[in-house]
Specification:
8 helices, LeuE-type, transmembrane helix, mainly alpha, about 80% helix, about 200 residues, transmembrane, cell membrane
Amino acid sequence: MSGVTVGLVVTMPVGPMSLLCIQRALVFGALAGFTTGLGAATVLAIYTACAVLGLGPAIISALVYSKAIVPAVSACLLLWFSARILGRTVSLAGPTADGHSAISSYCSAVACALFNPLTPVLLAAVLPTVALPEPRAASTMVAAVFAASVTWWLVVSGSVAALRSSLSVTVLNLINKASGLVLGALGILMAAECF
């Protein structure tokens, strides 16, 4: 299995990062959506590098050891995103009408992706099918995973932002509220895992 395939298999499933990318592309425009995806791709590249360098078992055991901490942090982040989204009204005045910056999108996406338990689990399932005979192959794998993930987020954010201009403010607000509710529900499910 190639690095591109690994990157797409881990990136494409709809989860918290997909919802966040889509919501930000709809509300703030393509740049905010893409930098959100770029944050997720960065974390995926970090996890992939750790896995191909043989640190995968250590990461998995650390996640198992901190079984209550990771879902708790993930739940807090998802609930925080949900509250912010639900408290916001969409305006078509401009893609950054809220002063939402690309750096803010990137950094918050990195935090969310780091504590998304789905990413290391998907990687743990996919990476054993990949043979890495030499260090150069490992770096090629990480670069391919990152490139595939970035390409996917570029397509998603660009497509959603293009759709944005054809939707009314009312529809955008409904989609925004729905994504906030779904992220909140995911946060509650994560919180339930802590008990």
